[in-house]
Design a protein that fits this description.
single chain; 16 helices; 31 strands; 30% helix; elongated
């Protein structure tokens, strides 16, 4: 019997059967409600499997002791007069009294409780929440059954979630008109495009994140991409040149893996996972959290998106929420770039709403939110189960909302169009932003990361440096600038006095990043060359064996090489419009 079946047996909303344990900060499933005293609760009794309790098989084939764990937690709730404390305010006060009398354990702070609700965000509505703690086989089965998955093959890094590495998640909002009430919007027969796209870059240390929107009308190249067919075979979809970004999905049989490939070619960042949502996700999730607060600088009446709201603060849900994230004509320029700003405001507000005590302390809201979120999501198969999504969510809860920065990939009007309706990458600002993301540089002032970055650079340059005349280096060109190796050697010899530098022509293969390979006994030479060229710590590749004789270091120029004398290290700041997830702003 599923969750809703259990709830209906006693005419109880299944969400109301989840009770906050004040001692652990976890939500626990209580099923035995007696008579009119629904506040009294008993422990979880999960379905038995082959006559056993404890470890049960989940939807993704893994094993968990969800039932036994739920019962154990329930037994830990302080008793009053020989019975378990009732949930709710009275029960919590009594539990607190029992704690003080027995001194068994300390109550967790509210901030710690919030960590138990697993937050992330997804698509145009917000990066999504699976907000209920472990507590029963039926719940896992219910939520697992909601999820849709796509096999994207060997793309991305499947172990990156818990690895000591940055994490890139592509959030795709498709304009496919599926779902009740959505068939009347625009292109009724559309197979769906990559209408809203956000590359969510999470830092290696999980202190900050950059949510970069990619305009749907950006002219770009879509590479050949491999897709999995229903019969298990693979089919390669030919790429196309100089087309809109949104055609990377749905057109010619392209799946989300094709959009991931397009983002990688565009940004130089490997996309590890994707999450995709449709129109229904916006409507259902905004309703599940009780509405999303937004702000308008002026009143809006848009016949195309059906948005009709007064100026100032508003709370939107359902159809109005969808209208808000779809509207373009409500803004000054009526462009997709303006719509992106509104979407970023909406997402930031939903994140704040999800993390509020009003949501996190409401079992009803959490259940409905988790149910809506899992129904709304299509994800890659590597994260296609509740336990795997929960693991991802735990990583994302580490990020303070003030350190989640929303930006848009810098673009300019397409110069090839007399009356521009599409855009192209800004040749100056876009490489700067992408370089910062590639170097895992935060767009906010994160003290811990700033200190770590300074420590890395200090460690890199700390110690003696060889004289320029003693630096011996072979230079290879793996970048995009023709003659880059000779250009660099000429500069090193004439401007820096590195006479033992040699042009070794083209590298065996193209390189995305400039690297310097050196032996332990060449560290002083490496420090000297790094200081001259402005190499970042990530470019330094120390070996394990000492150099012999006249062996030279190897400098391989990458795509980040912009010219001799230009520091390789990426920028630490950039002057572009940005906003933070913790601040409310009015859409203009």
């Amino acid at each position: 019997m599923d969750a809703q079946g259990r709830g209906r047996a006693e005419e109880i909303d299944p969400a109301d059967q989840w009770v906050l344990n004040p001692d652990t900060g976890d939500y626990e499933l209580r099923l035995n409600h007696s008579g009119g005293d629904s506040g009294r609760a008993s422990g979880v009794s999960a379905p038995r499997s082959s006559g056993r309790r404890g470890a049960v098989r989940e939807g993704d084939g893994e094993r968990r002791g969800a039932a036994g764990e739920g019962s154990r937690r329930a037994r830990e709730v302080p008793r009053q007069g020989g019975r378990r404390a009732a949930p709710g305010p009275r029960g919590q006060e009594a539990a607190a009294s029992a704690e003080n009398n027995t001194s068994r354990r300390k109550r967790k702070a509210p901030k710690a409780r919030r960590k138990k609700a697993l937050l992330w965000t997804g698509g145009v509505m917000a990066f999504v929440l699976v907000g209920v703690s472990a507590g029963g086989y039926w719940l896992y089965q219910h939520f697992n059954g909601n999820l849709s998955t796509v096999d994207i093959g060997d793309r991305g890094n499947k172990d990156v979630i818990t690895a000591n590495a940055p994490l890139n998640i592509l959030i795709i909002g498709t304009d496919k008109r599926t779902g009740k009430g959505n068939e009347g919007y625009g292109d009724k027969g559309s197979t769906g495009h990559a209408d809203t796209n956000i590359l969510f870059h999470v830092s290696k240390d999980r202190t900050n994140a950059t949510a970069m929107s990619i305009p749907r009308d950006l002219m770009t190249n879509i590479p050949d991409c491999s897709t999995k067919q229903a019969d298990g075979s693979e089919k390669t979809i030919p790429g196309t040149q100089n087309v809109r970004f949104n055609t990377s999905l749905g057109q010619f049989g392209r799946d989300p893996g094709c959009t991931m490939d397009t983002v990688k070619e565009l940004t130089g960042l490997t996309v590890d996972h994707f999450m995709m949502v449709d129109f229904n996700a916006v409507k259902e999730l905004s309703t599940a959290v009780g509405g999303v607060n937004i702000c308008l600088a002026h009143a809006v009446k848009d016949d195309k998106s059906h948005l009709d709201l007064p100026a100032g603060p508003n709370k939107v849900a359902g159809e109005q929420a969808l209208a808000f994230v779809r509207t373009r004509h409500a803004y000054a320029n009526g462009s997709d770039l303006d719509r992106i700003k509104g979407q970023q405001q909406f997402i930031g507000s939903m994140i704040r709403q999800m993390k509020s005590d009003d949501t996190l302390t409401s079992p009803t809201k959490l259940f409905k939110l988790a149910d809506s979120a899992t129904k709304a999501l299509t994800v890659d198969s590597a994260i296609g189960s509740v336990p795997k999504l929960s693991k991802l969510a735990k990583e994302l809860t580490k990020i303070d909302t003030k350190n989640i920065t929303f930006v848009t990939l810098p673009v300019i009007d397409n110069p090839a169009e007399p009356t521009p309706i599409t855009v192209v990458v800004d040749p100056v600002k876009s490489p700067q932003l992408l370089s910062m993301m590639q170097e895992d540089t935060s767009l906010t002032e994160v003290a811990a990361q700033k200190k770590a970055a300074k420590g890395k650079q200090d460690a890199l340059l700390k110690g003696t440096k060889a004289a320029a005349a003693d630096v011996r280096v072979d230079v290879y060109n793996g970048g995009e600038i023709a003659g880059g190796a000779q250009q660099t050697v000429t500069w090193l010899q004439n401007d820096k006095g590195v006479l033992k530098s040699t042009n070794k022509a083209n590298a065996p293969a193209k390189a995305a990043k400039t690297t310097l390979d050196y032996a332990p006994n060449q560290a002083d030479q490496a420090r000297a060359l790094a200081a001259m060229m402005g190499l970042p710590s990530s470019a330094m590749k120390p070996g394990t064996k000492n150099a012999v004789g006249l062996q030279a270091m190897v400098l391989t120029l990458g795509a980040d090489f912009k010219g001799a004398g230009t520091p390789i290290a990426g920028p630490t700041k950039i002057d572009i419009p940005k906003s933070s997830a913790d601040k409310a702003e009015c859409a203009k």
